[in-house]
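Today's session is about reading a structure prediction critically. Students often jump straight to the picture, but the first step is always the sequence itself: look for stretches that repeat, for charged clusters, for runs of hydrophobic residues. Only then move on to the predicted structure, which in these notes is written as discrete structure tokens rather than atom positions. Here is the chain we will use throughout the hour.
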Amino acid sequence: MALLIYPDCQLAAVYGLTDLFRIAGECAARELEQKPLRTVRVSHWRVEEPDVVCVWDSRPSKPHRISHAIAPPSLVMPESMQLMTTASNWMAARHADGGILCSVCAGAFVLAETGLIDHRRATTHWAFAEALARRFPNVRVATQNMVIDDGDILTAGGILAWTDLGLTLVAKLLGQGVMLATARFLLVDPPRRDQRAFSSFVPVFDHGDAAVLTVQHHIHADCADTRSITDLAAVAGLTERTFLRRFSKATGLRPKEYQQQLRVMKARDALELTKQAVDQIGWSVGYADPAAFRRLFRRTTGLSPAQYRERFSVRIKAAGEGEGKD
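Below is the predicted structure for this chain, in token form.
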């Protein structure tokens, strides 16, 4: 298991994965007892231009063949990441040798430079999705997924999704029982496959289109008020066709999608911070039909409103509080 140390990468992920694989090996020894034991050899490879060199190996006395290469997260935002030609060439060479390539969070940008995920689904941190799609338009960015396993290439989402990737690899290499034992020891959940519940709506206001900004302010002032395209175009002082084009260009969303995202954001806040009934929250953000609200919420977050509240509420529920069916 080769962990790539590239400029500005997150060393916490490098050392965290190193510890995770060591713990997995110890769990395997206990779980399998006298059965033949597969261990995970870990090595660290650092970019030292114009090459990538091994700087640490858990079993330095034995011949080394890299079966997996992992690009960890970056500590800088994607727009500040430098080109990783040496790192990506090294990863491409590992793939050509039959190795499996992996990335976590912004490590997907290093992986994408290889060209090996062109026309494939890949995930990254939800906040980096647009930047990844813009820089590498042939990559099919799917940030609803926490981990995407494509066989020869695995990508993981958020900056701490290295635990999900690591446990996924442990399950593949050492078995499900060892993975669960490792997760229990580390007090972390088994690998998650969905990061929609952790994403948030971050509206863009600094796009420079004054007419669209006026409409955004109008929508945010009362998200529960359903406005037609005709009404919104009138607020912008534009024809409907021009308004739709400019709104989508400025915000990245169509007006209906924008309003839905805003409403779900408001509903999330209410579920996290209040004890309001789910149906009441749906009504307050503009959905008179409780079923329609629940469908939209689940489609957006991957969870029902009750599941979301159970997972993310910062308030202590009153005894016997009911939410109804979801």
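Discussion point for the tutorial: The first strand starts at residue 2 and ends at 5.
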